[in-house]
Amino acid sequence: MLLFLLPGYCTSAQVKFTASISPKEIGRDEYAQLKLVVENAHEVQQIVPPNLNKFNIISGPNQESGMTMNNGVVKRYIALNFIIKPKRTGVFTIPPALAKADGGDYKSNSVTVRVTAKATGNSQGASAFTSPFSGMDPFAEPAPRINYNDYILRKGENPVDKIKKNMFLRVEVDKQSCFVGEPVIATYKLYTRLKSESNLVKNPSFNGFSVLDLQLPNDMGGYSIEKFDGREYNVYNIRKVQLYPLLPGNLDLGNAEIENKIIFIKAEYANSQQGVMNDVLRDFANAAIPAEGMEEQKVILQNKPTSVLVKSIAGRKQTSRF
């Protein structure tokens, strides 16, 4: 991944490139922040992040710039931040990142993170990146008309197919084609008729674009009711961005991935009384159905590939003459 950054700040101090990770010990289902910082550069031309194939990138790269003061000495910096989640337990060393600044090549330090099987409680603000349903009741009013059959698993039915029929991820763009540098708004939406525990495990790559987030990672903006193919769904905005294409071509926006845990009721245990089914929908733990009457399924959903045709500015200028 190559990231081209805007000019930095003028300074006479020596350029410094460092990497840090916080916290240094997390549970498998917790998050850490990787930060790459270039200090005291007139201009940062490029940062190449390290290989993160042992982690899922939940957010990033997010760019920031600013200044710090220590004992009267002012240091200016440009930084990239990543929120990452480990794929398994163990002790992982993230190799150095590379940077090009003021015409020179720099290498950061490596960092190490320990991943344990149990939660450590060290991961601050992890809930901001876990579930788009945090603090919300997907079946509060107004809500789609609930079909109880969506929750009943009959013999011979494939639960994964049933999930995909009632829950899917889509991306919408405000235009299918544009010129280099012309903004495009992309919105990643989760459509669901099921109550689930849903976690964003992979962000889209947006290769070839400069990215401006239009919503914060912990601000899903509530949900709306939309019809799709004649059926009503609760719809959550997972991510909304403004993209600026950097080069011409047919550019793929990349896929988001959401991991979902859904519980079905086996048909032979389903109670015909609506009151019990309401309890099931509200709280499986308190429902009057034994554990053997329920089946838990996990599935990862991703959006279908979406691309934008980006035309060169030269072609636009030529067309405008006639």
Salient structural properties:
3 helices, flat, 22 strands, disordered N terminus, Immunoglobulin-like, mainly beta, 322 residues, five-stranded antiparallel sheet, single chain
A few lines on this structure:
This protein is mainly beta. The protein is 8% helix and 48% strand.
Series of H and E elements: EEEEEEEEEEEHEEEEEEEEEHEEH
Q: Identify the quaternary structure here.
A: single chain
Structural class of the secondary structure composition? mainly beta
Low-confidence region ranges: 1-12, 124-145, 272-277, 279-286
Largest sheet: 5 strands, antiparallel
Could you tell me the strand content as a percent range? over 45%
Mean pLDDT: 76
- Give the end-to-end Cα distance, rounded to a whole number of Å: 40 Å
- Helix content range of the residues, please? under 10%
List the total number of helices: 3
Rg to the nearest angstrom? 24 Å
Integer count of domains: 2
* Apparent shape: flat
Question: How many beta-strand segments?
Answer: 22
Describe the structure.
- The protein is mainly beta and 322 residues long.
- It has 2 domains: 16-126, Sandwich (Immunoglobulin-like); 131-313, no CATH class.
- The protein contains 3 helices and 22 strands.
- The protein has helices spanning 159-166, 274-282, 313-320, and strands spanning 16-22, 25-27, 32-39, 44-48, 55-70, 73-86, 90-94, 98-101, 104-107, 111-116, 152-153, 167-173, 177-179, 184-192, 197-202, 209-213, 223-228, 231-245, 249-252, 257-266, 294-302, 307-311.
